[in-house]
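Model the whole thing, not chain by chain.
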Amino acid sequence: MRQSFYLAYKYITFHKIRSIVLIFSIGIIIYLPNGLKKLINESEAQMLARAKATPLIIGAKGSSTDLVINTLYFQQEKTEGISMKTLNDVNASEFGYAIPVLSMFTARGFPIVGTDPDYFDFRNLSLASGRLMSFVGECVVGSAVADKLNIGVGDSLVSSPENFFDLAGVYPLKMNVAGVLDPTDSPDDQAIFVDIKTNWVIMGLGHGHEDLTNNYDPSIVLQRDSSTVKAGAKLYIYNTINGENMDSFHFHGDMNSYPLSSLIFIPKDHKSATIFRGRFESGEFTQQIIVPEYVVNNLLQSIFRIKQIFNTVFVLVGLATMLILALIVTLSIRLRKDEIYTMFTIGSSRLKVFEIISFELIILIGSSSIFAVLLYLLTGFFVEDFIQNFII
Amino acid sequence: MTKSLAVFIFMLLFSCTSKKENTAESDAKKPVIAVVNYPLFYFAKTIGGDMVKVHFPTIDGDPAYWKPNAKQVNDFQNADLILANGAGYEKWMEKVSLPSSKIVNTSIGFKDRWIEVNEGLAHSHGSEGKHVHQGTAFTTWLDFNMAAAQATSNYKAISGLLPGHSEELNKNFEHLQKDLGDLNKKMKEIGKNLEGQHLIASHPVYQYLEKGYGLKLTSVHWEPNELPTDDMWKDLEKTIAEDKVGIMIWEDEPLGEIRSKLEKLNVLISVFDPCANKPESGDFIEVMNANIERLAKLINLQ
């Protein structure tokens, strides 16, 4: 038996390239249906867990899927916004409380999410270092952002302009990193959190500039009378907010009309949630209210119908591979006719020859299985990427 | 004997320590209410009593112009309830990050009665067009009707935090409403006595007092501890002559030199402390009663 295994092992190592190709191809065939199943199941569980942890989402009427994906995954789909007034009205309803979400801009490829300190309590996000943002112009970064950009407390991040050719448009804002979050294996790891007002500053709804009342530079102040000062384009708008210029920052217009992407609503209890949803049905609120769990469930059901097609394909591919394997074995036995004849001549029995070839197959399939298991284990690390790239 | 004395001392020490620990523990369980000025501190403390911990930071100067540091913002972030005065009082809140669900604007119920004021020149820059930074007068509590409405707002918010203590909260609230009602009555009486008379205010902080009690006030920008310039005196003398002013209201006792010069101009001084910050002595009701008494005394002198 040991000798048979030794001979099989020697045969396989002698035909290295053929053996490696066989191990890889069989390994991939074993891995693919299982790996995909793992990816799908874990993605499903992760997406549903985040959706279930978010009781209700309020947003403008339109695509409920876009609204949920934008709120849960900060995908920045072009959805209609709601106003700050909705937040105040919803909070005044006393059925629970709402957390604002405004996700429109990015910084170095990561979404900037405007919210307030309630969000961190709601998602149980803890700080790895630093503190939560205290002032406008500060940000708290997710663990993946900190790792990938190699930044930490005290560093800064600049928001990306919406359009490089729009010189009069939104100016980039340099944000100071106040804290870094602990990893959570969720989209929060990939986000840059700022106060909602910081997002409004990036949008240009608020800004800071030097005091015009005491500036008499004709190249800056174009026109002045007792009640009005008109400044030109030379007026410097601060692109960072710090202790020195903080006082000069101000917002224009009625802040009640300022935009939000959506609200996460946390009702006091089930009864409050039901009554509150009724207010939207009755038209008291003109926005839509969504149970994210239902939307994500529908989305997953549509997407994962493809899983059945994949399963069928894998069964057929697996069958084809097994047939090819059988063909390879049959052909190799025919090619090894002389070698087998020699084995018979020197006294080997038919059983012994069968034993040696069987060991060769066992070693090949065993190695392929180990390769498949390794791939399967690696799959767990790519669930988040799979969700980001293939589902949402 | 020595042994029993040692045991007694030990027990005494132990009981003191555990009492301290118990107090700290029960303090930690109390809901924390952060407030932005002294009137709201007084209302919250009077209504909530020992059932709540009211956090009013130590502020040097007028709390309306407070600039908190990160630690102080963090204290507000960690509170269970944040009581804001509203009417544009706490401008610092525009620049800090606070949980919107915990903020209660105590004057939002009478937003239609906020008094608008212009805060500077209209200006334009970039593509935004002309805009002026409009604001509102914010010493709302000087109209005691509004103060009562703010106290009601406090009461509702605190009741939400302490659902099992309605009886005690109600009792405290009724007591506060009575005190504020008494102040309102007294101030109305003064308003009647001052009908038709023109007064000068050292600072534009008495808009709600003026409107609530039918006073006629002209505000200047004088500081009690700074000597006014000659131009300021000239302007004041002109106003006194034109409007026949006999009383000037100050936030604090002015310098002796100012007092004597005003007295020469036959203008009586009445200190009416808005009490936005913690008073050195007494409480909100006592300070307001003293303000009213001073004003009443001057009317009798006239």
